[in-house]
Write a structure and sequence with these properties.
Radius of gyration: 22 Å
Oligomer: single chain
Distance between the termini: 28 Å
Strand content: over 45%
Helix content: under 10%
Number of helices: 4
Largest sheet: 6 strands, mixed
Shape: globular
């Protein structure tokens, strides 16, 4: 399962907000439940384009579904985005786009995994943004427990899930569950952590997922964060904010590795970000884009690459999120244009052929983490993956 937004260069602050608060910050709505999603993003190149969106159904592995468009969408599926506004009284100009879905007789007919495709009508095959979302039937009950791992060597650094899917009272008759039921878990909305869970056993209409190594997640650490809601003074995690070359620039407080540091409890928003400009009535249009300068004070290591990650950049370790070593500062640095708001973030590094967050942030069993579980089902001979349930828990919930 892949639930990562793919953003073309020149766009920022992509957000999908569900009216159904039971799903927290997830882009999920119930099928036939009266829910809606509100999608918004900015064109930072101030191109004033006429954009459209369409809905595409996907298989659980992220590939296009075999279903025909008429089978999963009602109404017209190529819709102009008419809610567009120019930024107001900002030093960096941008165009703000937004739309709500479903609307005006347009919607989806089936549960499952979808994405909005944003494109220019003059070149409909060139998709500028892929924004994933899900539609849920809420047909099963899901229980999630976060516990200390079974393995002694993991007990101080990791967290283990135990998941129960109860379909005993479901209107959906589940058959061949070992092959047709697909259950995934995710940590802190980090799309890079999504993994399939192996079933341990079945008892009647109850399916148990537990006591396997695949159920164990890194405990990690509390998120670092920085507050650029104010620009007239330094917010949390910010050393100073200055106006330079007609752009606002924020220097975060220099950070150090926490790999071998003792755990310290701290408040965060579990990797999320919130757009808000202090003392502004409409942050969507009046918030500035600030060049945020991140600093990680570690020794130069040519065998490692360091990255800044969070929901604001889809947790991607790529050229845009890679830090550069500055000998004069004796630190790795990166500047990113971010809209005024409050941001959680972490550092990750590439060690060998893999990406590691604990190598910079540490690994602690006590860390507060959110966990999400998704239950998909494709009946024998079926042509699409139904989403039967979504559930959330926190590592400190009992």
């Amino acid at each position: 399962m892949s639930a990562r937004a793919q953003t073309a260069i020149g766009f920022g602050s992509v957000q999908v907000v569900s009216s159904n608060k039971e799903y927290g910050n997830l882009p999920v709505m119930d099928l036939d439940g009266g829910d809606y999603l509100h999608v918004s993003f900015d064109d930072l190149q101030d191109r004033d384009m006429t954009l459209r969106y369409r809905v595409r159904m996907l298989d659980v592995d992220g590939s296009p579904s075999q279903m025909r468009e008429i089978e999963y969408v009602s109404g017209i599926n190529k819709v102009d985005i008419t809610e567009t506004d120019y930024s107001f009284n900002t030093r960096s100009n941008y165009v703000h786009y937004s739309f709500s879905y479903p609307e005006k007789g347009r919607g989806v007919k089936l549960s499952g995994y979808y994405q909005f495709e944003i494109f220019d009508p003059n070149d409909p095959e060139d998709v500028l943004l892929h924004v994933p979302f899900m539609v849920c039937e809420a047909a099963v009950n899901i229980g999630i427990e976060v516990k200390v791992p079974r393995r002694v060597e993991w007990r101080r650094s990791r967290q283990e899930l135990a998941v129960t899917v109860d379909a005993s009272k479901s209107p959906v008759r589940i058959v061949q569950a070992d092959r047709c039921l697909k259950v995934f878990a995710q940590q802190n909305m980090n799309t890079q952590t999504i993994r399939p869970l192996p079933m341990l056993y079945q008892t009647g209409g109850r399916y148990e997922y537990r006591d396997r190594d695949e159920m164990v997640f890194d405990g990690l650490n509390e998120f670092r964060n920085m507050d650029i809601r104010p620009i007239s003074y330094s917010g949390r995690g910010v050393e100073h904010v200055r106006l330079s070359s007609d752009r606002w620039n924020a220097q975060t407080l220099p950070q150090k590795s926490r790999e071998y540091k003792p755990y310290v409890n701290d408040d965060d928003i579990d990797g999320n970000f919130v757009i808000k400009a202090e003392n502004m009535e409409n942050s969507d249009l009046e918030a500035e884009y600030v060049n945020v300068h991140f600093v990680l004070q570690v020794e130069e290591d040519p065998m490692r690459k360091y990255y800044v990650i969070g929901k604001f950049n889809d947790w991607l370790c790529n050229e845009e999120s890679q830090m550069t070593y500055r000998p004069g500062e004796r630190a790795y640095t990166l500047s990113l244009p971010l809209k005024q708001g409050f941001y959680d973030y972490m550092f990750a590094c590439q060690v060998g052929g893999g990406i590691s967050i604990p190598a910079v942030e540490g690994n602690n069993q006590e860390t507060e983490n959110d966990y999400y579980v998704y239950v998909f089902y494709r009946e024998p001979g079926g042509r699409y993956d139904r989403l039967l349930g979504v559930a959330k828990t926190n590592s400190r919930e009992k």
